[in-house]
Design a protein that fits this description.
The protein is an alpha+beta fold. 14% of the residues lie in helices and 29% in strands. It has five helices and 17 strands. The strands form three sheets. Strands 1, 2, 3, 4, 5, 6, 9, 10, 12 and 15 form a ten-stranded mixed β-sheet that branches. It has a five-stranded mixed β-sheet with strand order 7-17-16-13-14, with no helix packed on it. A two-stranded antiparallel sheet has the order 8-11. The termini are far apart. The mean pLDDT is 96.
């Protein structure tokens, strides 16, 4: 099943993308329907209930207008956990040694955005960079989860761009979070795909272009730490709640890795995608 959200900021509604490409307004699924912690906490039961609703009601449910804004594919979670330097080629281009354990940092949930929303550069930022990533969404609550049990805690996968202001991240001291958390720095979508929709998640293609020029091209098979390992590892240090997001890292080709480095400027257009998870696009706007 493929889930999405649509509507103006602050007034988002849930939707379901049908196999024929039709986009159904799923507000009728329940009185407070949304793809949020309460929904994902139901685990497989929630998805099964939604599937029954789709079978019975989708034919008469409202269709989402063609011009509707797509929102973040999931409602604001309790946390967005990101993994740094998780692709061998990206670690090398960054001049870093391959990590012996996953590098974990947090991204502010206020950075969430829709997959087609414009991205306004942060005030004082001169080194905003791109990072196309496979993200996963937690279903069942996860705490001290074994690797072999990890996938039972995954509700689905979603396309993410881990936008990063390298000046804030690397030159302003402290942890990476301050360079990862500006408004708009976490576009998620266009939709969340349940694991059965993306059985080859361990080797899917990721790509990104800036102004039509290819910048990133890789597959998730190049990860140092795979999805089950990451879910298990992160769950040792914090309880993962339903709806939480883990973004699994990016392949080579980021602006920081260019010689000399290349960063985003107002007027640029960033397009990116993952096979099976659709694609997204941001127009870059000047800071104000």
């Amino acid at each position: 099943m493929k889930l999405f959200r649509f509507g103006a900021p602050g007034a988002e509604r849930p939707g379901v993308l049908l196999p024929d490409g039709a986009r159904v307004d799923a507000s009728g699924f329940g009185p407070s329907s949304d793809w949020n912690e309460a929904f994902f906490a139901q685990g497989a039961d929630g998805i099964a209930k939604l599937a029954r609703w789709v079978a019975a009601e989708a034919g008469k449910a409202p269709r989402v207008p063609a011009g509707a804004r797509l929102a973040s594919a999931v409602a604001r979670p309790s946390k967005i956990v990101c993994i740094g330097l998780n692709y061998r080629d990206h670690a090398r281009e960054s001049g870093a040694a391959l990590p012996g354990e996953p590098i974990v940092f947090l991204k502010a949930t206020s950075a969430l955005a829709g997959p087609e929303d414009d991205l306004r550069l942060p005030v004082g930022g001169e080194k905003t960079d791109w990072e196309v990533e496979l993200a996963l969404v937690i279903g069942a609550r996860a705490k001290y989860v074994a690797v072999e049990d990890a996938m039972a805690h995954v509700a689905g996968f979603v396309l993410h761009n881990d936008y990063s202001e390298r000046g804030f991240q690397l030159e302003r001291h402290g942890q990476w979070t301050k360079g990862k958390s500006a408004d708009g720095f976490a576009p998620l979508g266009p939709f969340l795909a349940t694991p059965d929709e993306l059985p080859g998640f361990a080797s899917v293609r990721l790509w990104l272009k800036v102004n039509g020029e290819s910048k990133q091209e890789g597959t998730t098979a190049e990860m140092i730490f795979d999805v089950p390992t990451l879910v298990s590892y992160v769950s040792r240090f914090m309880t993962l709640l339903p709806g939480d997001v883990i973004s699994t890292g990016t392949p080579a080709g980021v602006g920081l890795g260019h010689k000399p480095p290349v960063y985003l400027r107002a007027g640029d257009v960033v397009e990116y995608g993952i096979d099976g998870l659709g694609q997204a696009r941001q127009r870059i706007l000047a800071a104000e």
